Amino acid sequence: MPEEREGEFYGKNGEPRKFDPTFKGPIQNRGCTDIVCCILFIIAIVAYIAVGILAWSQGDPRKVIYPTDSRGQFCGQAGTPLEDKPVLFYFNIMKCASPMVLLEFQCPTTQMCVEKCPEKFMTLLKAYTNKNDFDYYKTFCKEGVTNTMGAPEILKQGLCPAMLMPSKPFTRRCFPALGESGGVITVGNNSKFDDGRGNMRDAKDLLDGVTNATVVIEARQVVMKIFEDFTQSWYWILIGLVIAMLTSLLFIVLLRFLAGIMVWVMIVMVILVIGYGIFHCYMEYAALKGTAGSDVTLQQLGFQTDFAVYLQIRQTWLAFMIILAIVEVIILLLLIFLRKRILIAIALIKEASRAIGHVMSSLFYPLFTFVLLAMVVSYWAVTAVFLSTSNEPIYKVFNETACDYSRTTCNPANYSTSPEKAKCPDSMCLFAFYGGETAYHKYLIGLQFYNVFLFFWCANFVTALGQMTLAGAFASYYWAFVKPDDMPAFPVFASLGRSLRYHTGTLAFGSLILSIVQIIRVLLEYLDHKLQGAQNKFTKFLLCCLKCCFWCLEKFVKFINRNAYIMVAIYGKNFCTSARDGFFLLMRNMVRVAVLDKVTDFLLFLGKLLIVGLVGIFAFFFFSGRVKAFESTAPHLHYYWVPILTVVVLSYFIAHGFFSVYAMCVDTLFLCFLEDLERNDGSAERPYLMPESLRKVLNKKNKKEPAQ
Q1: What is the three-state SS of 393-449?
Q2: Is residue 309 part of a domain?
Q3: What does pLDDT average to over the chain?
Q4: How many domains does the chain have?
Q5: Which InterPro entries match (predicted)?
Q6: pLDDT tens digit string along 148-170?
Q7: Looking at residue 699, what is its pLDDT?
Q8: Residue 634 falls inside a structural domain
Q9: Within a domain: residue 188?
């Protein structure tokens, strides 16, 4: 370009690098960077540990495991008097028909822990006349009931239910054993029952109570079934993940020696795997033709807790087929338009393979990152559970008739003699929920927010540490004049030591910026969920725009951070300077960025897609029982898609972990390559350090040294 325009271009995008004969890769003599952020990060970690200790001292995970009776005690908890009473029994299940149940998640009736659910019809008045029946009946009564007490007195004090009916345990709760005979709802084979007060009621009157109580725990039911599926299939899930890890490792090793061939194999295999997915979806779609109920639309079906129902509908397979076909077409079009660029990207992948060959320990670094991330996730999850269960039991007044004290807090220990009981004789003081009014409980939501924020910060820090470590190791390979003689003996460990010793603050700074953006996205999602029922069109549009903008901002921050860490690993400067230098370097070479870097990322993504596809197909045929050889081996599950989806998602993360080494190597070599073009000109005094394969692709040559 003309000299004037060139100066204007470089003025906007920084000055190009000058030749420096002393520069031989990552700077060894460097100082600590972003010290203030390092101190802030250490203080935040210490505070995070304090929050965890506080949560562990106050929390009680049993609250989410065991059902709770009216006194706030846990049914079936080992080491307690209720250890042999694992099931929750409702005195009057029909009171669960109140709409308030759906708002307060509590039935306004006494609930107590019992050994097993009632198995026969019985009223208190009838049982009182027979000693054996009354002894059986008392197992469903509160303590203090004696044979000398009259039935009216027992009912007046609310010590026993007015009736018992055949029930079955469901999620550790007793629900009436409802059935249907000739289109009529029955309970215990009878369409009517005595409510214990001399009234004959229809069995269908129980439906509302059972339905409301079921709605309250329906989500928990699905979670419990999914949990049971995990307990039945965790062994096979681990085997599937091991297969994914071995497959990923095999691909990486083959790329090391057969980069060009493996890239084309990956491309062809991805096309074939997606093509098979389209074929399989079509076969399922065709097989359901004419089947009763298969033409129901997804909109008509609505949400179902049994997700296997969706696989019996033709529209589901049609949707899968269309999605896969669109993906297939997009990939084919990209390959057609990028066919020439792929050759250049293959040369870069070959060079990345050589670099990894000289730094083989880099292949195992993702395992270290995985262990650190597992620790961060575990700490966050445990702390979140303890925080969410660190509330105290809150008791409220529940009543059938009008009462001024309705839904106010009460003390069950002295409620029978309280003024509330005197003014509202039919009221009861029952356990409502877990809460609290102390300073700790008031700021509990703040502690939960801090737990989530530190989770993002720590997870991003671990990821950033991996990026900077690998960048330093691969940069030392590129700038070594004689490979591997001019490289450190242990490049990964040397780079890890430099990153932690000098640049903890820089890593904390970059990950803090990213965490702030991510937590804002979480808050926007939370706000959208809260306003879903009341928002107008403008609010909906505004929230949608904000979510889109912050999604784009998060991607941009990740891009800036990644290149900043590479520049920090090489030059040892602070975050802002490195981010600016890396961004301007890419801006001065925008065409090469589009040609090389993004096409290479696309090829590596195809590799991850292939591994996920292969492992996913294997998991589908194994867990669904479609292959007779696996029918006796595969576990029997509620939802066979649970382990399949788990294997597919985790396989992607495993493949991403291994291929991230390649991606980081490519990005590092790419920035080094751009710097090489600016620093050197191929002369004898300033030779290019890029390999001969890249020089050929870019038509760059090193001039022969002049004869001495």
Answers
A1: EEEEEECCCCCCCCCCECCCCCHHHCHHHHHCCCCEEEEEEEECCCHHHHCHHHHHH
A2: yes
A3: 76
A4: 1
A5: Choline_transptr-like (IPR007603)
A6: 788 788 877 778 888 887 787 77
A7: 61
A8: yes
A9: no
